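Hello again,

I reread your note about wanting to compare the complex against the isolated chains. To keep things tidy I'm splitting this into two emails, and this first one only covers the full assembly. Below are the input lines as submitted, including protein chains and any nucleic acid or small-molecule components. They are followed by the predicted structure of everything together. The single-chain runs will come separately.
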Amino acid sequence: MTDQPKWGLVIDMDRCNGCTVCITACSMENNVPYVGEDDAGYGRSMQWIRVERYWEGEYPNLVVRFMPVMCQQCGVAPCEPVCPVYATLHSEAEQINLQVYNRCVGTRYCGNNCPYVVRQFNWFDYSSDMPEPLNNQFNPDVTVRRRGVMEKCTFCIQRIRRAEETANAEGRELQDGEFEPACAQACPSDAIVFGLLSNPDSQVSHLVRSARSQRLLLEELGTEPRVIYLKSERGLRS
Amino acid sequence: MTANSVPLPQTRAEEDPHQHLLLDPRPREEMNHMVMEAMTATSRPYWVVIGILATLVAVCLFGAWLYMIIKGMGVAGIRRPTYWGMFITNFVFWIGISHSGTFVSAILRVFKAEFRRPITRAAELMTAFGLAAAGLYPLIHLGRVWLAYWIIPYPNQRWLWPNFRSPLTWDMIAITTYLLSSLMYIYLPLIPDLAMARDRSVGWRYKLYRGMALGWRGTEAEWFRLRTAIQIFAFAIIPVMFSVHTIVSWDFAVTKTPGWHSSIFGPFFVVGAIYSGVSAVAMILSLIRGSMLNMKYFIREEHFDALGKLMLVFSFTWTYFYFNEYLLAWYGGDQSDFYVWNALTRGPYMWLWLLMLFLNIAVPWLTLWNKRVRRNPWLLFAIGFMINLGMYIERYLIVPLMITRSRFPFVWDNYSPRIELVMSVGTLSLFLLLYALASRLIPLIPVWEVQEGQLAFRMRRIGKMEVPSVSEIE
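Full-complex prediction:
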């Protein structure tokens, strides 16, 4: 299966400073609705990325670790087989997990079976309830979801597609680093790097081959995630 | 009272054979009349209860559901990571209730447990109405219920099929199969009783029963075919019953979610379902006996005694499975399992967990060994209620509460129901309403089965002793 492009993210946990700008960029790019204060407080905020914070040690000798977690685009995804209507399924072309909003009937089974808990549910019609001028900020390349469907990180598939089509139209190969998903583009410390894991010359492949220790989240479950975390150097020191 | 029911001097009072329904026969016409009277008599309190239940169903179930469809699922209390809440608890609970009918009726029929005869219909109706209540919940909990038909495999232009790897598709198939087969299984033994009712009623009831009795005349050929069909169905429905709750348990067991991912869930759920189902049969029989005419003749202490024994046995079995699951999780030593068990056994839900153990284990074990307790209908009602409450809590602990503790402590969040509570009340009302209406529409006692049993049981005099004797009919 070498001819299939395999996209991946490399997240450098050394560089992540927990600024959460990736969340904002992702929400703007992918029309992720803002659920309002009450629902967010109730645990219904819908951002596709969460930055987990872990504290180690006692104040004042406190180390804070940040770990951005988004859909891991599992090669063997637990969310896929449980959906009764194929609303979440594997894309052979991009080797990522797709979420077909139009097909979703809202059983939320995928959300229960996702070990990374990265799937979000549209509890209300957040997007269509958006006041008048604000709806102009919606990205026309991305579906605006209505209530009752699941959604999750797509690796900005609209950007992948656009870059591939541009390269095709110009009759050339897609270059590494030609485009980035919104989170990687916005990250001020370059903690998130995106590229083709199947291309040995790409930046992500170089990072994966580097001497730094790396891990996949919940690797023991055999989900074959496409997001690779580079282990913190601070973790080695302390 | 016939001469047979007078106790003979040499038998002690508690061993009086005539306290068994099958050894206390009455003339057939009198018995038919008793059942007809129970079915047609309605009192003012009955209509008041019907009115209250219908209002509760309209407001709490369908009204609240409509509100949720219009506003969105957010009016329920579920939130990440608890994507399934009390709705699925209700689903599992009512599917469990629906197991009572098949268990009491089919399994006891297959094993020729004679005490089943007057209570099979009451139990089978619980199957149908339990399924009606349960079947709503896969729809209620859908985010976009108006597209629910996409789960059904139907030919369409785009060749889009449901995902046959998904347990929800299995659920849809299993529940449909169970509903249809249990409805047929209710209907078959009902035919002679409907014919009996047809011959004794006028007006709209006559028209109704004439249609439903399918022209039953009671010829030898008809009886032969009916018995054959019932026998086939009684055997065939048992694996269907086991498969349904196993498949329901697979909704949880096939996931990777800690606490749910357990190979014991299939038999564990089946046993739990029968446990709560048999307890619910005891409850409903107490209600029928207490509220309907002539039922004290048909539903006797011996039936409660037998059901009480079943409840105790299933309490033992259920406890065995329950602690098996704990033992394996503890022995396995998986950290994510410990998160879940800690939340239940010493976390915020400890009171629920302890209450569940008290209701499901302590209550039956401390009471049901006593014959006097088992033979008291209202005590058994109370115990059945407590067991069902305990089993509800058990499902509640499994479905929403176990998934509040995922593998990422960062997203842990507790769960508390909102509109789910209102709709649960509405669902209980729906079940009771359907049952109350059915109790006045179809004969709640299978008269012909009771009469058949009474034909088979005779008192026979051997020397000076009078002993009960049974002849094989089926």
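For quick reference: Chain B has a mean pLDDT of 90.

B.
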